[in-house]
Specification:
The chain is built from 16 helices and 15 strands. Helix content is 36%, strand content 13%. With 468 residues, the chain is of the alpha/beta class.
């Protein structure tokens, strides 16, 4: 019997057990370990909250991840059931049977399995464990190891902890909805009940309106955060938080009021931004940077590979600065959408394309007032971006002949699979008045482009028109 057949049989057994949930819960102490993962997956997908709580209580592995699992039930209801089942284990729980759970990971992660391969009994036994907080299992066990090496542990002078340290990994979105507030209250209560033994590790934090959530931020260990999104916050509030999230690899800021950009505050923002040595992704939307991009690029790491700057009022000078920056030769993802950077000259953008040609995979230049002349001029440089996979340039006044010329050039980029293009101007009775779109003409455009793709043997490419 091969491994695939064995997995299928285990899945069938798990589904069969869930047909009689009370009996299945009663049998959890007796079922083989190999059945736990398929049973958990089936219970999660089916929204069996009582079963999930019971399984967490007796989980026979050291870690548990929801990974890519999804459910039709209320997501918060499922998380609360699992957190409610979390039990702090007594220290030295080394028996070969019984609950072993030390890390409960409630984050959605497509690349994460339900359990990690058991690589040994010593820590780290989980690939997702916290590495930054002083309250993490890693730091606590390192400290205990140091004590043992010094011989202090044998003297009896240092009392051993009566409970094993545990970690609860969860992504948090502060959006002021009633259900979110209820979940956060439940979460805080659980951590406070097990203060000192249960470490709440938040890797991804989303904040909508900073001023409404300052109390919950005091409860979090902000040093754990790797991904931060803030919407509708004053720049001074951003600065206060950046001083504490020193391990960020992704920062997203949106709708930061321009009136909050006092000179001293902006300097402080740049100062703390420059302390983020791990930063790889930076996204600023509705963040006015006119003739200021050079200051930003001077402080962010040169290895930055993702840069989103839509609605940032960028100038041609800013594009020139970007093309000359150390980051340009590392960028994989770039968005300059909704900036009128082609209103004067196209040469700065052309130079930028030449600099990013060896790394760029994703480019967005939507609604930048790109004309036929501009697109034709930068087309040779664009054709040299051999790693490009996604291109989006919707909402630009392009004619059908230039669009066809673009397609002919881009079919040679074998990694390019997705292109979002603007509706050609002839499809409108009046350009930029989108109620005047002629759907029949657009259908003819799409048919022509599909025929050209087929003739170029690029049926693997998807070209999609986008209209407002």
């Amino acid at each position: 019997m091969d491994q695939k057949t064995t997995v299928t049989l285990l899945e069938l057994a798990a589904k069969s057990l869930l047909n009689n949930e009370p009996a299945a819960i009663h049998a959890l102490d007796e079922i083989p370990r190999d059945l736990f993962v398929p049973l958990f997956n089936a219970a999660f997908l089916g929204g069996h909250k009582t079963m999930l709580k019971a399984m967490v209580q007796v989980w026979p592995f050291r870690c548990l991840h929801i990974g890519s699992l999804n459910t039709r039930e209320s997501y918060y209801d499922i998380l609360e059931a699992m957190i409610d089942g979390l039990q702090i284990l007594p220290a030295q729980n080394s028996s070969s049977w019984g609950p072993k759970l030390r890390i409960l990971d409630l984050r959605r992660d497509l690349d994460c399995e339900t359990i990690c391969s058991e690589i040994g009994t010593a820590f780290p036994f989980c690939f997702q464990s916290c590495i930054y907080s002083q309250c993490s299992i890693l730091k606590i066990e390192e400290a205990q190891h140091s004590v043992r090496c010094l011989g202090i542990g044998n003297s009896g002078s240092e009392p051993q902890s009566a409970q094993e340290p545990m970690e609860l990994l969860v992504d948090i979105s502060l959006n002021s909805t009633v259900r979110t507030e209820q979940f956060l209250s439940f979460l805080c209560s659980k951590v406070q009940q097990n203060l000192g033994s249960l470490h709440l590790c938040c890797r991804s934090l989303q904040i909508d309106r900073m001023s409404a959530h300052k109390s919950i931020l005091q409860f979090l260990d902000l040093g754990c955060i790797e991904h931060l999104e803030m919407d509708q916050a004053n720049l001074s509030e951003v600065v206060t938080l950046l001083a504490r999230v020193i391990h960020l690899n992704s920062l997203t800021l949106c709708n930061i009021p321009f009136k909050s950009y006092q000179r001293r505050t902006f300097r402080s923002f740049l100062l703390w931004l420059g302390q983020l040595d791990n930063l790889q992704e930076l996204s600023l939307t509705f963040f006015c940077l006119t003739d200021q991009l050079h200051k930003l690029l001077r402080v962010v790491p040169p290895q930055l590979d993702t840069l989103y700057l839509p609605f940032c009022s960028l100038s041609n000078r800013d594009v020139t600065v970007l093309s000359q920056s150390s980051q340009a030769t590392h960028l994989r993802v770039l968005s300059l959408s909704n900036n009128q950077i082609f209103s004067e000259v196209y040469e700065p953008f052309q130079t930028l394309l030449e600099k990013v040609s060896s790394t760029l995979q994703h480019l967005e230049i939507n609604d930048c007032m790109i004309t036929d002349a501009t697109l034709s001029a930068v087309l040779p440089a664009l054709s040299h971006c051999t790693h490009l996979r996604v291109l989006s340039f919707a909402f630009n006044p392009i004619t059908m002949p230039v669009l066809k010329s673009l397609l002919q050039h881009l079919t040679s980029l074998m990694k390019l699979k997705y292109v979002t293009y603007p509706v050609p101007v002839h499809c409108y009775e009046e350009w930029d008045f989108h109620e005047s779109l002629d759907r029949q003409k657009l259908a003819e455009v799409q048919a022509q482009l599909e025929a050209m793709l087929h003739g170029a043997q690029r049926d693997d490419m998807t070209w999609a028109a986008y209209s407002k």
